[in-house]
């Protein structure tokens, strides 16, 4: 400060430079307003600057003051400032000499009252509810008996110990803890990341995927629980594919995550009770059901046993059931021998009737008829072939005549006709060969039948045929007299012989004529 007296100056006022004046004002303001509490509405808030500092303004209906929160202070705030929020800021007022402005440097920041926070919560609740994040249809049922439980909470508080102790007492299962901050700057992001991290686990991965999630925190003020009202936390809870239990605060504390969760627990201990059943109760219930089942089975067996006994009393004895079948069996066995004898006699008679018709002359007549038929068919086939050949030759002649009169236009037709003629001739030859083959096969079959019935096959077994002087077969000794010349036919030839004595005819037998009558011919058996 300069104290030089200027004789031309009308007053004795001291003269200051701009810097000196601005510094003096700065010191005066900071000394006078070193610690103040200001109530106002946040205006112009855009979040932390790239440097980490936050710049905005506090205003009421008549005035406005700039405000700044330095980076170190901002990280210690219990809740994040938002545009339009009414707050109470504690700090000191200072000036900024570079622009002749004053501002308040905020050291602590708290909501202006529960009413402001509740109004903010209600506004956010209406917004998220309109998107359907709180619909009851989106709620998932909790698994009855989970094998893995995921817990999102602080690893150092009493909450995690209460949950683990309660789960261990009721039904010990595998518990995975995702440690997070449950209040302060960045706690909302950590809770949301933990929920999404559990959902991102693979069911068959190295870290098992939980069957149910518990998001827990102990009781506190509305500001302490403010992280669980963050929009990012509510959206993560609503998007969770794993059933989620919200256990934030005490029974009277409500946060927005409670509306988005599938189930709300009044306390963290209550969440553990909802997550798992009581193992002892399940064992007792299973034992009671097993006892009831055993009792039902015993009663059912007693009822069935009584029913079987009643049915046994109503059934007849074995002797009564088998009396009639035994009688029928005895009658059938008594008539079995006689029935077999009668059946044998009937079969023998039928065989003799059939054998009486199988004589060599009948077969010879049949073979002769078949030979005649075969010869007639062969003759017809030859005539047919000749006619076909004649017709083919006539066609060829006509074709040659036409070809002689026509130019080369008809030569192709002649070639086709000749080819067809050749095919017909080949087909005719093939048909004749097939017919002759079938006729020869049929004749061979008839000849085999004749040979099988020929008396010469009998001679091969050691028998002989006696013939008289007229070469007629002699079947009885009475037909021969002493001194008669006979011929004995064996399988390999004949020999002559002379009888020494004649046969004695039986009583009542007529003398056989020298030449037996020729047996009448019999028709075909076929």
From TrEMBL:
Q: Which reaction does it catalyse?
A: Exonucleolytic cleavage in either 5'- to 3'- or 3'- to 5'-direction to yield nucleoside 5'-phosphates
Region spans: Disordered:
497-526
Q: Where in the cell is it found?
A: Cytoplasm
Q: Where is the OB-fold nucleic acid binding domain?
A: 16-109
- Can you cite a GO biological process for this protein? DNA catabolic process
Q: Which coarse location class applies to the principal site listed for this UniProt protein?
A: cytoplasm
The record, for InterPro entries, names:
Exonuc_VII_L, Exonuc_VII_lsu_C, OB-fold_nuc-bd_dom
Give the main EC class: hydrolase
A Pfam family matched by this chain, by name?
A: tRNA_anti_2
Subunit (UniProt) = Heterooligomer composed of large and small subunits.
Q: Which family does it belong to?
A: Belongs to the XseA family.
Q: What does this protein do?
A: Bidirectionally degrades single-stranded DNA into large acid-insoluble oligonucleotides, which are then degraded further into small acid-soluble oligonucleotides.
Protein name (record) = Exodeoxyribonuclease 7 large subunit
* Organism, as annotated: Rhizobium leguminosarum
Gene name per UniProt = xseA
């Amino acid at each position: 400060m300069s104290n030089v007296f200027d004789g031309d100056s009308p007053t004795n006022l001291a003269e200051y430079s701009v810097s000196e004046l601005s510094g003096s004002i700065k010191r005066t303001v900071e000394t006078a307003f070193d610690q103040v509490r200001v109530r106002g509405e946040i205006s112009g808030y855009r979040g932390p600057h790239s440097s980490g500092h936050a710049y905005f303004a506090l205003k009421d209906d008549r005035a406005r003051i700039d405000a700044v929160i330095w980076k170190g202070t901002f990280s210690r705030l219990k809740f994040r400032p938002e545009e339009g929020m009414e707050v109470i800021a504690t700090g000191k007022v200072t000036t900024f000499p570079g622009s002749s402005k004053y501002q308040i440097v905020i050291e602590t920041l708290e909501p202006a009252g529960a009413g402001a926070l509740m109004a903010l919560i209600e506004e956010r609740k209406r917004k998220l509810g309109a998107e359907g994040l709180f619909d009851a249809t989106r709620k998932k049922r909790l698994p009855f008996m989970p094998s893995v439980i995921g817990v999102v909470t602080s690893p150092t508080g009493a909450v995690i110990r209460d949950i683990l102790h309660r789960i261990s007492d009721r039904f010990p299962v595998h518990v995975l803890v995702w440690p997070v901050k449950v209040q302060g700057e960045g706690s909302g992001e950590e809770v949301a990341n933990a929920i999404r991290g559990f959902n991102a686990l693979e069911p068959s991965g190295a870290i098992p995927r939980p069957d149910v999630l518990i998001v827990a925190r102990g009781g506190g003020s509305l500001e302490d629980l403010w992280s669980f009202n963050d929009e990012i936390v509510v959206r993560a809870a609503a998007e969770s594919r794993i059933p989620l239990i919200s256990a934030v605060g005490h029974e009277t504390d409500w946060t927005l995550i409670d509306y988005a969760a599938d189930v709300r627990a009044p306390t963290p201990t209550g969440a553990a009770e909802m997550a798992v059943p009581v193992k002892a109760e399940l064992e007792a219930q299973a034992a009671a059901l097993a006892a009831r089942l055993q009792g039902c089975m015993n009663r059912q067996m007693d009822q069935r046993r009584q029913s079987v006994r009643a049915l046994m009393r109503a059934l007849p004895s074995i002797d009564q059931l088998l009396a009639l079948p035994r009688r029928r069996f005895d009658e059938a066995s008594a008539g079995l021998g006689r029935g077999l004898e009668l059946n044998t006699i009937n079969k023998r008679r039928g065989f003799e009737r059939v054998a009486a018709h199988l004589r060599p002359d009948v077969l010879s007549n049949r073979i002769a008829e078949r030979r005649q038929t075969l010869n007639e068919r062969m003759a017809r086939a030859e005539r047919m072939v000749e006619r076909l050949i004649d017709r083919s030759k006539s066609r060829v002649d006509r074709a040659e005549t036409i070809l002689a009169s026509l130019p080369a236009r008809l030569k192709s037709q002649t070639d086709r006709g000749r080819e067809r003629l050749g095919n017909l001739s080949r087909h005719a030859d093939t048909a004749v060969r097939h017919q002759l083959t079938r006729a020869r096969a049929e004749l061979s079959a008839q000849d085999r039948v004749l040979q099988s019935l020929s008396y010469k096959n009998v001679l091969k077994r050691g028998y002989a045929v006696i013939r008289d002087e007229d070469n007629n077969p002699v079947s009885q000794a009475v037909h021969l007299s002493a001194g008669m010349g006979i011929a004995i036919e064996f399988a390999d030839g004949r020999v002559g012989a002379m009888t020494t004595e004649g046969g004695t005819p039986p009583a009542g037998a007529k003398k056989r004529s020298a030449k037996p009558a020729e047996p009448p011919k019999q028709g075909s058996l076929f």
